[in-house]
Design brief:
The complex is a heterodimer.
Chain A: H1 2-22, E1 26-32, H2 37-46, E2 53-60, H3 62-71, E3 76-79, H4 85-95, E4 100-114, E5 122-123, H5 124-132, E6 149-153, H6 158-167, E7 178-180, H7 183-192, E8 196-201, E9 208-210, E10 213-214, H8 226-231, E11 237-244, H9 250-260, H10 262-271
Parallel strand pairs in A: 1-2, 1-3, 5-10, 6-7, 6-8
Antiparallel strand pairs in A: 3-11, 4-8, 4-9, 4-11
Chain B: H1 12-43, H2 45-48, E1 107-108, E2 117-119, H3 147-151, E3 156-157, E4 164-165, H4 168-199, H5 202-216, H6 220-239, H7 247-271, H8 275-283, H9 288-299, H10 301-317, H11 320-325, H12 343-350, H13 359-394
Antiparallel strand pairs in B: 1-2, 3-4
Helix pairs in contact in B: 1-13, 4-7, 4-10, 5-7, 6-7, 7-10, 8-9, 10-13, 12-13
The chains are: A alpha/beta, B mainly alpha.
Chain lengths: 279, 397
């Protein structure tokens, strides 16, 4: 009796390990972009063939995902920015394969301001000047006489990288830009601050205003909608990617094929992003 | 080991217990040393030089000779749907099923070695320079500083064409927030400990002491979130400063983490002072406050100093509150009403991104080494200097 009682903890541990090892499901790990984490979660929930595949979805930023891909700790990396050249070199060095890029959705990067901000639109040049710190007062772009408060993402974010490369033309952000941990935190900060400006995925707008952006001073300003992103008139649009470190096979391939099929792309529209174009 | 006063023979169970305790203790000490060694080793990759990404692209010959896409001038905004490449690499792997765009059958292999392979490329446009075999790396005009100059400059932008690793704004930010946290937290904690140890009625003591120690159990994320949402708005309403998240809000959050630590240890130290000292002082005619401030507090001074030091260590290393409440802007200003960026928050936010072995990685570990060195130095200074000289003065030796 004593023996049975004393051995119960060991038996429990052995039982748990047996159950864990006996699982016949194949596990697919998806790590990476925080912008895409909700979308990836919805995909894994809506995926029809769940009986044989088990999904593990984590955020952490596009850079985290690509680092995990290079280290081999994830099957799929979700990234909101294209992979960098030296990361491709590292993949090739580690796996002998340059990596595989799959475009899975499109996203528009909206410029958010407080709802009470009187500014109606901005040009790309003005956005660049604001975020690099050249323009520091709202009255210089047609608003009130108040200093501009900049909100940005942390530098491990694909959104940050994309914004820096394509909107700021690789120049540095102003030192006074406050770095927020995620798009939701950024939107929350902008919604509480009358003089704030920030950027983030178009799907996250809540209690803030997305400004229409014009490519040049003479062009018409367009806001981020599905139509303007697809036909290219909204200037700040980007792809959302999956990256792999080997050719897709087995359940990974089935999942990816489902994601880029019309069924998977329907989920994209529901979450608030824009489906990829199908020719 | 050989205890001559041992009455009974030790049984095997006790022997096993004793040796396992020794083994676990040795392993723990060893692990602490290994952590130090690991962090120093990772930081020392900066000295040996990180792996250089090859800057020259040699033209690789892929098996499919691809017809080049149109060379167009670099578009100034990334607009993947605006222009189409005219020729679409007809020699690449053809779709096996025969229908174009069938999912999973078509992989486009880029001629440019800087690009990965693309799966189902009909889902979107290919970047126009993806087949350029001779690519010139455009060098951003910028003076290349030596690592030392870069490290001591005042710009922290580690991700970009020219990475800038200036730690001066980080050190200033850490100093600001820690100072504010200690200036708020240490007096409150010590005075609360004095109150609970001497002036409180027993039933009040029963409630307040566990209450403050409950605050120690708050996850720092919750404290950070509370500061982000409530304290920041309150501070902005009271002071009217433009920045909602600044060093003061971060300092208040950190002090919420510091107060329970300072309180617990100071209260234990104050309670351990012998009652005879207190009774003698009261008998000689001093008031309660004079007794507490002039007799009991100096008598408990080593413990109170240890409490404040632990509080400083906690404020220094607290990551989550700093990430959420300080605004994370690497500014080199000393104003407490501007956002700050602490060393711990920098390591916490950026460690996920770095490619292992890169310069950024080494710099982050170097920041960790700096944290270690500072905490160690602070402890050493207090052990050697403060305790001996200060305490002697306080205790009248």
């Amino acid at each position: 009796m004593q023996f049975i009682r004393r051995s119960i903890p060991f038996l429990v541990v052995i039982a748990f390990t047996a159950i864990a090892f006996a699982l016949p499901k194949e596990r697919v790990t998806i790590k990476g972009s925080d912008t895409m984490v909700i979308l990836v979660q919805r995909w894994t929930e809506a995926y029809p063939d769940k009986s044989a595949t088990e999904f593990q979805v984590t955020g952490g930023g596009s850079g985290t995902g690509i680092a995990a891909l290079i280290n081999g700790t994830t099957n799929i990396c979700a990234s909101s920015r294209p992979i960098k050249k030296d990361e491709v070199v590292q993949l090739e060095k580690k796996f002998g394969y340059k990596g595989l890029e799959i475009r899975v959705a499109m996203d528009g990067l909206a410029i958010y301001v407080h709802k009470s901000n009187p500014v109606k639109q901005l040009t790309m040049a003005q956005v660049k000047d604001i975020f690099t710190g050249k323009v520091t007062n709202w009255k210089q772009v047609g608003g009130n006489d108040k200093p501009i408060l900049l909100y940005s993402r942390e530098n491990n974010s694909g959104t940050y990288e994309f914004f820096k490369e394509h909107v700021l033309n690789k120049q540095d952000f102003a030192a006074s830009a406050q770095h927020m941990a995620g798009t939701a935190a950024l939107i929350n900060a902008v919604s509480k601050d009358n003089n704030a400006i920030g950027f983030g995925g178009a799907a996250y707008a809540k209690n803030v205003k997305a400004l229409p952006i014009a490519k040049e001073a003479s062009a018409k300003a367009v806001g981020p909608t599905a139509a303007t992103i697809h036909d290219g008139s909204y200037p700040i649009s980007r792809f959302l990617y999956f990256y792999l470190n080997q050719k897709p096979a087995g359940s990974v391939k089935k999942f990816i094929d489902w994601v880029i099929s019309p069924a998977g792309q329907k989920v994209v529209s529901e979450v608030g992003y824009y489906p990829i174009k199908r020719k | 080991m050989n205890n001559p006063f041992r009455a009974t023979r030790r049984n095997i169970g006790e022997l096993i217990a004793e040796w396992s305790i020794r083994a676990i203790a040795s392993v723990s000490i060893l692990v602490i040393f290994l952590i130090f060694i690991f962090v120093f080793r990772e930081a020392s990759t900066l000295l040996t030089g990180s792996e250089e990404a090859p800057t020259e692209q040699t033209s690789t010959s892929s098996q499919e000779t691809s017809a080049t896409s149109t060379t167009q001038s670099e578009p100034d905004v990334y607009n993947p749907d605006a222009e189409e490449p005219e020729v679409y690499n007809p020699e690449a792997e053809a779709p096996a099923s025969g229908e174009e765009g069938a999912p999973g059958e078509f992989i486009y292999i880029a001629a440019n070695p800087a690009y990965p392979h693309i799966y189902n490329p009909s889902s979107g446009l290919i970047p126009p320079d993806i087949d350029a075999t001779s690519s010139e790396e455009e060098v951003i005009a910028g003076d290349t500083l030596s690592f030392g100059e870069n490290f001591l400059s005042s710009t922290w932008q580690p991700v970009g064409e020219v990475p800038k690793f200036g730690i001066v704004p980080l050190l200033i930010g850490t100093a600001k927030t820690t100072l504010i946290a200690i200036l708020i937290g240490a007096p409150l904690g010590i005075l609360a400990a004095l109150f609970v140890a001497f002036f409180a009625k027993p039933w009040i003591r029963e409630i307040v002491k566990p209450g403050i120690e409950l605050l120690a159990g708050f996850p720092s994320v919750v404290i950070g979130f509370f500061c982000l949402v409530t304290v920041a708005s309150w501070v902005q309403d009271v002071t009217g400063v433009p920045y909602r998240l600044n060093a003061i809000v971060g300092g208040i959050g950190l002090s919420l983490a510091v107060i329970p630590i300072v309180f617990s240890i100071a209260e234990d130290a104050l309670s351990a002072v012998p009652k005879t000292l207190r009774e003698a002082s009261l008998a000689l005619g001093s008031t309660e406050w004079q007794t507490a401030y002039r007799v009991m507090l100096p008598a408990a001074a080593p413990g109170v100093f240890a409490a404040v030091l632990l509080g400083i260590g906690r404020a220094f290393g607290e990551t989550m509150i700093a990430i959420m409440a300080t605004g994370n802007a690497p500014l080199s200003s000393f104003s407490p009403f501007e956002p700050a960026r602490t060393v711990a928050a920098t390591i916490g936010s950026e460690m996920g991104e770095v490619v292992w072995g890169s310069e950024h990685y080494g710099v982050l570990f170097l920041l960790g080494v700096l944290l270690f060195v500072f905490s160690f130095g602070l402890n050493a200074v207090t052990e050697l200097y403060v305790k001996t000289r200060f305490i002697k003065r306080f205790q009248g030796k």
